[in-house]
Design brief:
7 helices; mainly alpha
Length: about 140
């Protein structure tokens, strides 16, 4: 009798253990990097931003190598003579602006969603201005 109770009890415990409800399955959140990469308008502005940065940094580097050039950007001033460091800084800046633009584009606030393009456009404008200024004002 005792053994039957033990066997029945253990089988009931096993049955209850097996019938536990499974953990709720939540939809996995998309990786932040993948979400930004799939946002086509943000990627289009990122491509334009990287193009403007490349033009500006190459012009700056070329004029610096000819001599007599003064960089106004205090961060880039220390990177003159190191083109890889300048391009890495520019790429990080552009990707940061793209990430911020994507976050603004998917914001819950309507005003922020309407201004999602602003960080990237500002970055592009600054580099286009720097390129044009360097081309116009540096005397070779």
């Amino acid at each position: 009798m005792l053994i039957e109770c033990i066997l029945i009890g253990s089988s009931l415990c096993q049955a209850v253990k097996d019938n536990k409800p499974a953990k709720p399955h939540f939809a996995s959140k998309q990786n932040a990097i993948v979400a930004v990469l799939q946002d086509k308008p943000v990627m289009a502005l990122l491509a334009a931003d990287l193009t403007a940065k490349t033009m500006d940094y190459r012009q700056t580097e070329r004029d610096f190598n000819f001599g007599g050039f003064q960089e106004q950007n205090p961060i880039l001033r220390h990177m003159l003579g190191h083109p890889v460091a300048m391009e890495a800084y520019g790429a990080a800046y552009a990707v940061g602006a793209a990430w911020l633009g994507h976050k603004m584009r998917t914001s819950r606030y309507g005003v922020v969603r309407k201004l999602w393009w602003l960080p990237q456009t500002y970055s592009i404008e600054q580099n286009v201005y720097g390129y044009a200024y360097t081309r116009a004002h540096y005397r070779r």
